[in-house]
Amino acid sequence: MKIAICGAWHVHAKDYTTAALKTECCEILGVWESDPVLLAKFLENFPDIKPFDSFEALLASDAEGVIVCTSSDTHADCMVKIAEAKKHIFTEKVLALNVEDCLRVKEAVEKNGVDFVISLVWKYKPWMRTVKQIVDEGKLGKINYMRFRNCHGGSIMGWLPEHFFNPTQCGGGAMIDLGAHGMYITDWFMGEPAKYSSAFTLFDNNAKNIGKLEDNAVTVMTYDDGKIAVNETGFVSMTDPITLEVSGTEGFARCTVGGGVEMKAVCTEKKLVTVEMAPELPAPIYQFLTGNILEGCGMDEAIRLTKMMVGAYGNIM
């Protein structure tokens, strides 16, 4: 597949570009980035990739697929035009900052018959897949609680770029960025919540955070049938393992990324046991690049993620 890179705004643009370079069936035709500083930094890492003169030049190119890493507030406008140019789309999360923009992208993608993949990476990792398999097999009984924690020290360590604290471009702070993982994992395990209640705080006095966006965040979600889900995230925690816990009427399962998966349930005679890990599946970027797209990282999931973010930001304590 011939690939174009649309934007170098996101910190993972480098990772996706590297993935395309490693994929034998892919050729990168060029990159477009409106910010000359971000473009220069990108080209320092990839000097052999040619910049497009304009976004219109990218659209007119022979690229068959486009990796979208622009700021979140520009996603919808870019992707509608990319779809109208009959090019397949891979995008960083979130798809857009509101549901209306998501639906514009959906309409353009469906009308023009192009593929769409969003980077919901943790759904394909062995830890999450193993716990999901346990739940799907009914080993925990009726699920009533889950907790997902995913944090890093990007603010206190200073490596998050200044534009990641721009409220217009990002639409929020830690929750809409890193917290997106917990939201789509919650949706995967429990579906869409009925109600949201968020506690967002500013812990770090980071000079880059001119928008005073939350860097420490928790969203509690409730369901009409009584289930509760908790999504914890932040930019101010060091060495925290990514953690998933799921509880039901017959037991619980938990995992920490880098460690194993444990469960204790009626079916284990209420003994704590280590569970054999499910195999890892290709990340969404590789699914997109090879054309072997799996379930779970498409338009419907992308729209639900944005809906959940709207809910989380719509009810902050």
Main features:
Rossmann fold; 317 residues; 2 domains; Dihydrodipicolinate Reductase, domain 2; alpha/beta
Please, could you describe this protein's structure?
The protein is α/β, with parallel strands linked by helices and 317 residues long. It folds into 2 domains: 2-114, Rossmann fold (3-Layer(aba) Sandwich), CATH 3.40.50; 122-281 and 299-313, 2-Layer Sandwich (Dihydrodipicolinate Reductase, domain 2), CATH 3.30.360.10. The protein is built from 11 helices and 13 strands. It has helices at residues 13-22, 36-45, 55-60, 75-84, 99-112, 126-136, 167-170, 174-177, 179-190, 284-290, 299-313; strands at residues 2-6, 27-32, 65-68, 88-91, 116-118, 143-151, 195-201, 216-222, 228-234, 243-248, 251-256, 261-265, 273-275. The strands form 2 sheets. Strands 7-8-9-6-10-11-12-13 form an 8-stranded mixed β-sheet, covered by helices on one side. It has a 5-stranded parallel β-sheet with strand order 2-1-3-4-5, with helices on both faces. Helix 4 (75-84) packs parallel to helix 5 (99-112), helix 5 packs antiparallel against helix 11 and helix 9 packs across helix 11 (299-313). The longest helix has 15 residues, at 299-313. It is globular.
* CATH T-level topology of the largest domain: Dihydrodipicolinate Reductase, domain 2
Helix-residue proportion: 25-40%
CATH architecture annotation of the largest domain: 2-Layer Sandwich
Strand order of the largest sheet: 7-8-9-6-10-11-12-13
